[in-house]
Amino acid sequence: MKIAFTGTHSTGKTYSAKELSQILKIPYIGNISRQLQEKGFKLNKSGEDITQLAIYDAHKQIIINNNKFICDRSMIDPLAYSITNNCTLETLFIGWHNLLRYINEYNFIFYYPPIILLENDGVRSMDIKYREQVNENIVMIINLLKELGYGKNIYIIDCVIEKRIKSIVNI
Question: What is the pTM of this model?
Answer without folding.
Answer: 0.94
